[in-house]
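Note to self: keep these together.
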Amino acid sequence: ASETHMRTAATALFWLILASVTIPEIVLIIPTYRILIDFKMINTYLALILPYAMSVFGIFFMKQFIQVALPREMIESARVEGAGEFYIYAHIAIPLCVTGIGVLSVYLWLNSWINYFWPLIMIRSSELFTLPLGLATLYADQFNSDFGQLLAGSVIATIPLIVLFLFIQDT
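Structure:
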């Protein structure tokens, strides 16, 4: 009976988390900013990393991936053979989920790589600027812009993406 209640509670929690996707990201900026101020994380890289580390999309993606990639029969047979929960997690679940974790990592990294608005709010020091913020500073002002310098910076900014693509590409 308790397993049924746990499963029902987990399902309800999952749907509650998934429902939070309907809240526009712009609405959450001020509360998140206030929380990061309270934890004294403004103007740190941690302020840029934490919101992406707790991604609702990541929770949804990994739940769906685990349901497909991790057969219940395999876990049940490991339990019948006497494997403990940590062994099942470390030697069966994680190796089968490496692909999903990798895909999610690349997706979240690319999403944070191109983000402009969040770092604009969180970072005040020019030494901590992300590439989009750094490229935005190449504009001298509204009327006098060095487009050659801006385009050269944009080309340089794409080099890590190209290297990542070549590294993870299946050949």
